[in-house]
Amino acid sequence: MKLFVDRLKQTPAELAFGPDDPGWAEVLESVPELRGALAEPPSVTLRAHRMGQDAYLEGVLTGALELECSRCLVRYRSPLREPFRLVLEPAGGRVPAEPEAARDLARLGMCLGDELELGWFEGPAIDLRSLLREVVALAVPVQPLCREDCRGLCPRCGVDRNRETCGCEAERPASPFAALAALRRRQEP
Ligand SMILES: [Zn+2]
Ligand SMILES: [Zn+2]
Prior knowledge:
The chain is α+β, with helices and mostly antiparallel strands. The chain has five helices and eight strands, in the order E-E-H-E-E-E-H-E-E-E-H-H-H. Bound molecules: zinc ion (ZN) (2 copies).
């Protein structure tokens, strides 16, 4: 998953890493959130060009995920599509303060800063695996939802409220304040 920074020109060059690229193994392994969630191996296409001393990269990661809805626990398939862009400037002998970034710069010829959009490179070629690891990690939702308005499971009887209606809803007090008031009334002598 290499990009030859020294060969970049002002007009963008197109680059693609398909699902069969051997570099994915390390990328995917280093994202624990992804375990069991990959329905289709990812691929990435990107365009890179030079801007003065800097390298400008912009691309998109695509694939498919299979996730478990955090509200109703149904497993669903979701397209994976994560655009990204970043500017890499020459490290020029600087060493990143963060140990992981320093390791990446030495091993892969590039490292990311605090922001994904900025980084440093060193040498003629960079390996994009650390960047793709971050992009993949961003693409996995923290709270997966099978659909925006998923009604979830009933907290009392456990039915899937997307498919069935239960009687519990009606019994529930209108607001948490009402529940509190009822509790207070009960506690009064
Ligand atoms: Zn759901
Ligand atoms: Zn219920």
